[in-house]
Design brief:
This protein is α/β, with parallel strands linked by helices and about 325 residues long. The chain has 3 domains: about 45 residues, no CATH class; about 120 residues, Rossmann fold (3-Layer(aba) Sandwich); about 140 residues, Response regulator (Rossmann fold, 3-Layer(aba) Sandwich). The protein is about 45% helix and about 15% strand. The protein is built from 13 helices and 12 strands. The strands form 3 sheets. It has a 6-stranded parallel sheet with strand order 2-1-3-4-5-11, with helices on both faces. It has a 4-stranded parallel sheet with strand order 7-6-8-9. The chain has a two-stranded antiparallel ribbon with strand order 10-12. Strand 8, helix 10 and strand 9 form a beta-alpha-beta unit.
Length: about 325
């Protein structure tokens, strides 16, 4: 059976009575095309099954119209969400995305950068592996680094430090003064910013939290939840949702009720945070804004670094400490 002939930009233009240039601009997110017309053009393109001919365009322009995205570990739940946000932002510009995984290995990160450039990507977006930096001057294509405000060469990031401050203020306002912080990896700049914001507010209130460092994983949270003396604390603030959820499950298995015995917070607002019982109080990043700015930078629409606000999402995992918790957890 012969496959149907792919539709063309000219066919879309003829159907809508507009120029091929207008259709091309709308599909690439360029030019002065009204939002209403651009939306109509995209709908018509979808109805006709239009697929851009990237190979032909590459031959004409010398560009692949492909952006490489390198993440530290695609198995961690935050990074697929980032990849989806990048892919949506790229699609609006008529770009394809090639995804690489550093697997937490600095050597693999260097290899993936070289490999993507060898495959002809026009630009790179890199979320660095912990403990590494990526120097733009050492990369032969435009590059945007997504990490933290403290990262050298960072182009787009969430305000992790302010997110930590919001968590700390929330717990103090509820009346908590015996705090455990699951601080994540010591060599993570993102975790350092989040925990730094928490500690800034706690210490300004005369509270010295107990800090416990670990991997940022669900499994690490479970281990901490099994091993720590939970009776010493009225609240626990985790630098990552995965840590918080693993901790919550282990704590529950030991008979600790959240939030009656211990309030708990996370950071990232993963889907897990919304469906765990009780739903997790956490900090939400605007992944769409971060992704869109990173794309804007590598395609030349912006030349500035930006830090994007975070939001506190209050759910049922936090509450005021009970009278028993306030009075009975002083002894170690």
């Amino acid at each position: 059976m012969n496959q149907a002939r792919p539709s063309s930009i000219r066919e879309i233009a003829n159907r809508l009575g507009v120029s091929t240039a207008t259709v091309s601009n709308a599909l690439r997110g360029k030019g002065r095309v009204s939002p209403a017309l651009a939306s109509q053009i995209r709908v018509e393109a979808d109805l006709l099954g239009y697929v851009p001919d990237h190979a032909a365009r590459a031959l004409r322009t010398g560009k692949s119209n492909t952006v490489g995205l390198l993440v530290p570990n695609i198995g961690q739940p935050l990074f697929p969400a980032f990849a989806q946000a990048i892919e949506r932002a790229a699609k609006q510009r008529g770009l394809a995305v090639l995804i690489g995984d550093s697997q937490g290995d600095p050597g693999q990160q260097d290899f993936e950068i070289r490999n993507m450039i060898a495959r002809g990507v026009d630009a790179l977006i890199v979320i660095p592996t912990r403990g590494t930096t990526v120097a733009p001057e050492n990369v032969s294509v435009p590059i945007a680094v997504i990490d933290s405000a403290a990262t050298a060469g960072n182009i787009a990031a969430s305000d992790h430090r302010e997110g930590g401050r919001m968590i700390a203020r929330h717990l103090i306002e509820l009346g908590h003064d015996k705090l455990l912080v699951l601080a994540g990896p010591e060599n993570s700049l993102v975790a350092h910013e989040r925990v730094g914001g928490m500690c800034e507010i706690f210490r300004s209130a005369g509270i010295e939290p107990a800090l416990k460092y670990s991997d940022a994983s669900f499994e690490a949270g479970c281990t901490l939840g099994r091993e720590l003396d939970l009776h010493r604390f009225t609240a626990c603030a985790a630098a990552y949702d995965a840590l918080a959820i693993g901790f919550a499950i282990a704590a529950r298995d030991r008979g600790c009720s959240i939030p009656d015995d211990l309030s708990l917070t996370g950071f990232d607002d993963l889907m897990w945070a919304q469906i765990v019982s009780p739903p997790l109080t956490t900090v939400r990043q605007d992944l769409e804004a971060v992704a869109n700015h990173a794309l804007s930078f590598v395609v030349g629409e912006s030349d500035a670094s930006r830090i994007f606000p975070t939001d506190l999402v209050v759910r049922r995992s936090t509450a005021r400490p009970s009278a028993l918790a306030k009075g009975g957890k002083n002894a170690e």
